[in-house]
Amino acid sequence: MSQDPRVMLAQEPMGRLQVVAVTLCILLLAVDGFDVLSISFAAPGIAAEWGIDRAALGLVLSMELIGMGVGALIVGDFADRLGRRPIILCSLVLVTIGMALAATATSVTLLSIYRFATGIGIGGILAATNAMAAEYANDKHRSMAVSLMAGGYPLGAIVGGAIVTVLLAYLDWRSVFVFGAVLTGAFIPIVWFLLPESISFLLEKRPENALARVNTTLQRMGHAAIDALPERRKAVQESGVRRLFEPGLAKVTLLLTAAFFAHIMTFYFFVKWIPKLVVDMGYAASLAGSVLVWFNVGGLLGAVLFGLLTHRFRLRVLVIAVLLLSSVAIAAFGQGPDDLLRLSLTAAVGGFFTNAAVVGLYAMFAQRFPTPVRAGGTGFAIGFGRGGAALGPIAAGLLFAAGGSLGLVALIMASGSLLGAVAVAALGDRAPRS
Predict the structure, then answer these.
(1) Which of 121, 206, 360, 376 could form an S-S bond across to 80 if both were Cys, CB 3.0 to 4.6 Å?
(2) Residue 236: pLDDT above 50?
(3) 29: nearest Cα among 116, 149, 127, 176
(4) Residue 120: what are its φ and ψ, rounded to 5°?
(5) What angle do helix axes 406-425 and 315-333 make, rounded to 10 degrees?
């Protein structure tokens, strides 16, 4: 057989192994989603036990986000050089260790270090799984696959959040990190046995035994083996950060990074501060956690609906729309609903639009970055964009400490989604060949 497997995977219906690969990527993002938000569930207990103020808490809440930026930027490039699968496995090990150590922390400094290390692993998983899902999906379902994969983030927060809300009613905040370590560690053997390397990566990078590895995966998919590796696509042979700024990709790289930076600042202001704000309104920490769960219920619904809509509407138009609605929803939350039901509903609406926008941006990374730089490009955009993720909680903490009201702080932080919509609008419709 001499057919190019990339063409076959792109044009034929998705087989069982492809569905399994994309499903695993969704579940890995679910684990990431809980690991990122674990500090939010634990924050009220940490603040009460250690007696730290909002400004200091904002810094702690941002540490794994800073690590995620470093991880996505550096580890994402390694995923383009060494492979998606080994980077996912190494990142899972790092996150498991980081979560376990966080449960032993006795100071803000130690907890910050452990959360930073955890964030590096989370960032690596984000970049590598985004590329893996895009490369195992066919052309028809690629945007939806990446959107549903990103929808794993709120799914993990919902399921994990529901569990730790119960744990927090009986145990202290350390139980959140213990649960996260066990959950993350359980996926290491699952990925080892069930998730093969991306065929597109093997064909582009040609590592040792590439032909044998491609044929092994093809046979697992029920396809005939190929006699020889197809020719490389000359226009996209090179990888690395330098290629992201060549003509034709520089505009894509800069605008997608700017859009992600601005919107993720809004997203993480909301997601990191919800439990603490609800506790400050007089509710118990376990009830505050339930509001964050409802935020993620809305986020999951937003991700699923967004993925379905990609079959009917242009991706870029959808992303602009949900970014604008995200800005409105966050500003509305700042009006401060005065009972738990309204808080939960408002948080769910905010989660719906903010997460749909994150999902849409991930889908744009997969659409606009070609295969040799897909993980690296995704990692670059996420890596620098995570600066906005770290800035959101810190900036909000400083604004609160300076006496800013919830309404004013929410209005300022909502502007990030608005700026993201402007950046995506400036991107244009034309996508480079992948």
Answers:
(1) 376
(2) no
(3) 149
(4) -60, -45
(5) 170
Q: Where are the alpha helices (DSSP H) in 173-249?
A: 174-194, 199-205, 210-220
What's the pLDDT tens digit per position in 346-386?
889 999 999 899 989 988 887 888 767 776 777 788 777 77
Distance CA 287, CA 41 (A): 10
Which among 22-26, 98-102, 167-171, 252-256 has the top mean pLDDT?
98-102
Residue labelled with tokens 């992600």: 260
| Tokens encoding 204 | 């582009």
Token code pair at residue 340: 């738990």
Structure tokens at 35: 């690991």
Instruction: Tokens for 381, please give them.
Output: 């955009």
Instruction: In whole angstroms, give the CA distance from residue 16 to residue 14.
Output: 7
**What does the CA dihedral 298, 155, 390, 117 come to, rounded to 10 degrees?**
170
Residue 102 token pair = 């966080």
What is the distance between the alpha carbons of residues 55 and 57, in angstroms, rounded to a whole number?
Answer: 5
Render pLDDT for 59-68 as a digit per residue (tens, 0 to 9): 787 788 788 8
**Among 359, 389, 385, which Cα is nearest to 73's?**
385
Count CB-CB contacts under 10 A for residue 250.
12
Rounded Cα gap, residues 364 and 186, in angstroms: 30
Strand boundaries in 243-374, DSSP class E: none
Query: Does the predicted model carry a pTM greater than 0.85?
Result: no
Q: Give the distance, in angstroms, between the CA of residue 373 and the centroid of all CA atoms in the same chain.
A: 18
Residue 67: both structure tokens together: 């690590």
Residues with Cβ within 8 Å of residue 49, at least 6 apart in sequence: 172, 173
What percent of the chain stands above pLDDT 70? 94
Query: By the 8 A CB rule, do 433 and 235 touch?
Result: yes
Distance (Å) of CA 281 to CA 98, 192, 361: 32, 45, 33
DSSP, res 245: G
Q: Yes or no: say if 240 and 376 are a contact pair by the CB < 8 Å rule.
A: yes
Cα dihedral 393, 399, 404, 408 in deg (nearest 10): -60
Q: With left for phi above 0 and alpha for psi between -120 and 50, is residue 51 left, alpha or beta?
A: left
Pairwise pLDDT comparison (37 vs 16), residue with the higher score: 16
Question: For all residues of the chain together, what is the average pLDDT?
Answer: 85
